[in-house]
Design a protein that fits this description.
Blueprint: E1 2-8, E2 48-49, E3 56-59, E4 72-78, E5 86-90, E6 95-100, E7 104-105, H1 106-114, E8 121-122
Antiparallel strand pairs: 1-4, 2-7, 3-6, 4-8, 5-6
Length: 124
């Protein structure tokens, strides 16, 4: 399945890795700011993320995504290109999340997501 996401590009032209909106990585919960949006309800790199807790937001319909400004580009990846430690779960079509397949630390989840970086292709 093709999965689409709006992300910023790094200097090398690939998706920027990080924990902010529009980056390749999940936003952890901010223990100091309960109103801040998060993708997974854990904060520390050693905290355990379980399947079903959330993940990287993606979409199966590229037309449902609108870039907030010119810094954001549309990227696509095939679900088959994800590592065995990651899986795609439907979150209300056409929205999906890339989440962990088994209990994993937040740091390991971020690493697995970052490893997909070269598989994301920019949609022109």
């Amino acid at each position: 399945m093709k999965l689409y996401r709006l992300m910023k590009a790094a200097d090398d032209g690939l998706p920027a890795i990080g924990t902010k909106f529009g980056m390749l990585g999940v936003r952890p919960k901010d223990a100091g700011n309960s109103k801040k949006r998060f993708d997974v309800p854990v904060s520390s790199p050693d905290d355990i993320v379980q399947p079903g807790m959330g993940g990287l937001s993606v979409n199966s319909d590229p037309n449902a995504l609108k870039a907030p400004d010119d810094e954001f580009h549309l990227w696509v990846i095939e679900s088959e290109q994800l590592s065995p430690g990651l899986r795609v779960e439907e979150a209300g079509p056409p929205h999906h999340v890339i989440e962990v397949a088994t209990d994993t630390t937040l740091a390991e989840m971020q690493r697995q997501l970052a490893e997909t970086r070269e598989n994301w292709k920019r949609v022109e």
